[in-house]
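Form 12-C: Joint structure prediction
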Amino acid sequence: MSRASGSTEAARTRRERRVTGRGSRRARHAERPSVWRGPLPYLAAALVIAGAIAWSILSRAGPTPTLTAAASDAVVASVTTIPADVFDRVGAGGLASPLRATTFETLRGASGKPVVIYVGAEYCPFCASERWSLVAALSRFGTFEGLSLSTSSSTDAYPDTPTLTFRGASYRSDHVELSAVETADRQGRPVADTTPVQQAAMDRSDPGGSIPFLSIAERYVAIGSGYRPDVLGGRTWAQIAEQMRDPSTPLARGVIGNANWITAAICEETGGQPANVCDSPGVHATRSK
Amino acid sequence: MSGDRPAIGLVVAGIAGVLISAYLTVTHDAGGTLACVSAAFVDCDAVTSSSYSLVPYTEIPVALAGLVWSAASAAGGALALRADPPWLRPAHLAWAAAGVLVALYLINAEIAVIGRICEWCTALHLIVFATLFLALRRVRMGDTSAA
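Section 2 - Result
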């Protein structure tokens, strides 16, 4: 009997101990400070913001590494031989016309062909973006020699934008003449003066002297880039050349869309020649806008 | 509730955000130039004329989205001063956190891609960050009173 009563008491004690244990655990949980109460939430938010901004600063693109001559030639070859199908599929690329019509007479060169004038500088990021389109468009009318790769200034907006340069390049075409000048290098040092013809065209249509300045036989003028240079941002020359051939990319819509507008304006001055270019769907797409 | 200083701060921050966003939106639509210091890394035009000035895949100015966000945040602050329903504090915190994510995306575009910052945009980003901390403060207040 006494043994039985002893075991009952022991069981009660064990039960009480279990209950007391649960109660104290609950109490300890209630006393534990909520994660919201300490400085942790503020610190976490500040760290995320500061970390993201630091990452942006550190990931800022540096100068694009130089390419070998073969890789450079491959980029130039790719940009100057964009398939007609790409131009046709991009059409206007959703861009409004970058060109303004003038009331001037068509400017023709010594050969009687209409003259395309480009005035820019290697440091200028908007010239950098415009050149991709201009080279692609003019390559449909003729052939470039001596095109090389460059980047815009490291200290201007859209730093180190990959591009081509007209410095040291020449152009031959049965339909149009090109009069292009880069007035300064990517450090902003003067490297060439405008010719009297280039300067006269600028004085008439761009008295503020803004660059890039593009004149299609003085009948159409564009000042600035036809598309936003940031679509080129963070890409190498080779990636740009590759994406120019993919009509689904924003880059192709910008570069090739702008090129189609330039092509259409040149076609107006060449009397629709060459027909395979000027009658193409890509050029017609800009006319219908 | 009139002593809810974080809620008052949210209203003030929201109104300031609305004013700055409205200025950016109107200038964007009018194609005008912002009153902006032109210093080494400050170039408002370069930023506001970039493709990052539009909501991706749309023609909607980001500044207009900022205006809507700021107005909603100010309205949330005003509601907190009047009724403060229980869902408001976490909802405002989530709204602020979403705003911070967008602000960080735009700051990355300014620093890493465009290489220029816009002082009006920076002011708006600071307001968004302040909104996050104020919304956080209100959640903490709710947590403290609940305990």
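Section 3 - Comments
The mean pLDDT of chain A is 88. Chain A has two domains: 2-58, 69-287.
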